[in-house]
Fold this sequence. Notes:
single chain, alpha/beta, 20 helices, 9% strand, binds S-adenosylmethionine
Amino acid sequence: xxxVASKKAEEFIDxxxxxxxxxxxxxxxxxxxxxxxxxxxAKLRKGLTHREASVLLACELEEKNxxxxxxxxxxxxxxxxxxxxxxxxxxxxxxxINGCTYCPYHLKNKHITRKKLTQDExxxxxxxLQDMGHKRLALETGEDxxxxxxxxxxxxIKTIYSIKHKNGAIRRVNVxxxxxxxxxxxxxxxxxxxxxxxxxxxxxxESYEQLHPTGPKHDYAYHTEAMDRAMEGGxxxxxxGVLFGLDKYRYxxxxxxxxxxxxxxxxxxxxxxxxxxxxRNADDIDITTFKNGISDDIxxxxxxxxxxAVPYTGMIISTRESQECRERVLHLxxxxxxxxxxxSVGGYAxxxxxxxxxxxxxxxxxxTLDEVVRWLMEMGYIPSFCTACYRAGRxxxxxxxxxxxxxxxxxxxPNALLTLKEFLVDYASGGTKKIGNEMILKETANISNENxxxxxxxxxxxxxxxxxxxxxx
Length: 473
Ligand code: SAM
C-alpha cells in the first residue's frame, strides 16, 4: 500500500502507485482541461505531485508542451536566476565489491586498473583542481568496506579541506558514496560535508535487483532508504538521481518525485539537488545492450518537468552530456554543472592515468574549466563558485525556506559575482577575464539593495587588488 510517510522503501515507492500513475498519465495525455489545470497549479510555483507531473511528462499536445517549456524556463529564472554553480567530481578509489551490470567498477571486471589514492595523491589531485579554479567537489568511490572504509573517506575529506594552495581552496565537499549506516552518515556530517548524493539508479525493484545481482548494493530497500538514514544521521542536504537508460523513464520519473515527496512528508525537507545522469559507454559496458535509452527530446522534457514539479531543488547535469545537450537543457532548469571532469582515479594530476583505463565512464564534454566558464557567460549565465550556504548554516529546512520564498537570490547573486571574480583574477584566460569583468559590471549594477551593492563593489576591488577573498553574504 502506498504511504508517502512510511519509512519502508516499498511503501513510499509503491510499485502499484507508479503503475496507476502511468496509466492515469497515459489516459490523460491529450486531456486539455486537465493539463491546463495542472499548468495553472504549476504556475503557483509550489510544485506538483508525481501524478500531476507525470501527466505533463506524457502530454502530447504540442502547444501545451511549449507552455511547459516556457514555464520551466521562468521557474528556473525565478528560483535560480541566471546563475550556474560549478563543480568537479573527484574519484578517490575504484575498488568495488558490487556487481552493477552498467558500471565498469563491478567486481568481475578483472582488466580495469584498480586504484585507490593515498592522502598524498589526493593532495596532488586537489592542487590540480584548485589550479583550475574549482572550489566545490563531489567525492566518488566504489563500495568496498576493506579498501574504502568510512575512515578512509573521512580522512580524505579532512585532507581536502586542509589544502590551501596559492589562493585556492576547496570550500565544499559533497559526497557520493554507497548507502551506509546512520552512524556513518553522522560521521560524514561531522566531517563537514555539503550534500550527500546517492543515485537510486532505478526505482523499479525487480530491475534494480537484476542490475545489481551481487554485493551489498543488491539490497533495494537498504539503498532506497539511505536518505532516511542520512537524515537521521543529521545530513539535511541530500541529492537524489536516477541513471536514465536503465529502466523506463516514465517509471523512474514518477519514482523520483515520490522519493522527493517522501522526504518532504517525513522530514519537511525535500531533495537539495536532483541529478539527471544518462547511461554512458564505459570500459566493458556497451550501452546498446541496454534497451531503455532516452532521446535528447525526452531528456529535455524530463528536465523541464522536474523543474516544474520540484521548483526549489537544484538540478545537476554532468559532463556525461555533450556541450550541445547541456546547452539545450540549461535554461530548462539546470542550476549546477560540472566542468573539466575526470572520471579516472588520479586523472587530474596525471591525465595520462586515463590511458590506464581507471575511468568510470566516457566523458562527453571534455572542455577545460576556463572554456566552460566562458561558454556559460557567452550565453548570459553567471558561473558561480559559491559555497556559502552550508558554511553560513543555510542547510536543510533553512535553505528550503529561503529558496521557496525566492529570497535566496539576495545571497546567491552577490556571492556568484564575488566567486566569479576570484576565478577571473586567479585562473581565467585573457578572453574569459574580459567577458567576465563586463558581466560583473553589468550584474553589479542590477543589485537593487544599495548597501549590498556598495559592499559587493568594495569586495570586488579587494579581490582584484589581492587584498582579500572568500567574501560572502
Ligand atoms: N559507488 C557509489 C554507489 O554505489 O552509489 C556511487 C559512486 S558511482 C562512482 C556514481 C554514479 O555513477 C553511480 O551512482 C551511477 O549512477 C553512475 N554510473 C555508473 N556507471 C555509469 C555509466 N556507465 N554511465 C553513466 N553513469 C554511470
